[in-house]
């Protein structure tokens, strides 16, 4: 996900660079009949259809990463529990299919107004133990 945030959504000319980064990092492993790059292309297409993303306790997330998550238009479940999130950028409004948002242990002073504008949101998990 972090590598995805490097490239603007409209700039798919750099998709090759992204795939080679994944190969270099060891995220893509060559199979007998498939080359690493081909596997990476399939992985990239699957990210575009991602529906569940759980980033539980993965450290403090900067707003640039949250803006990138806003590009996952089909996302229905987003878990940011324990990530140190303190605000939700306007790009999160692009998550028009988001059904569940888990922000337990977030650092909100006030609940971001962005949340109220998520029209399909039916389950908001907040607080220390939430639910």
TrEMBL record:
The keyword Repeat applies. SUPFAM superfamilies: L domain-like. Keywords: Repeat. InterPro entries: Disease_R_plants, LRR_dom_sf, LRR_R13L4/SHOC2-like. Residues 43-127 form the Disease resistance R13L4/SHOC-2-like LRR domain. It comes from the Eukaryota. One of its GO terms (biological process) is defense response to other organism. This is Disease resistance R13L4/SHOC-2-like LRR domain-containing protein. The lineage of its organism: Eukaryota, Viridiplantae, Streptophyta, Embryophyta, Tracheophyta.
């Amino acid at each position: 996900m972090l590598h995805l945030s490097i490239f603007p959504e409209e700039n798919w000319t750099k998709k090759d660079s992204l795939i080679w980064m994944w190969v270099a990092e060891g995220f893509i492993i060559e199979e007998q009949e498939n080359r690493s790059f081909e596997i990476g292309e399939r992985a990239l297409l699957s990210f575009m259809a991602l529906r569940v993303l759980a980033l539980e306790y993965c450290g403090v997330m900067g707003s640039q990463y949250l803006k990138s998550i806003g590009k996952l238009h089909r996302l229905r479940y987003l878990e940011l529990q324990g990530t140190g999130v303190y605000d939700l950028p306007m790009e999160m409004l692009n998550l028009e299919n988001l059904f569940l948002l888990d922000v337990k242990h977030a650092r909100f002073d006030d609940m971001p107004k962005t949340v109220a504008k998520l029209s399909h949101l039916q389950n908001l998990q907040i607080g220390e133990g939430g639910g």
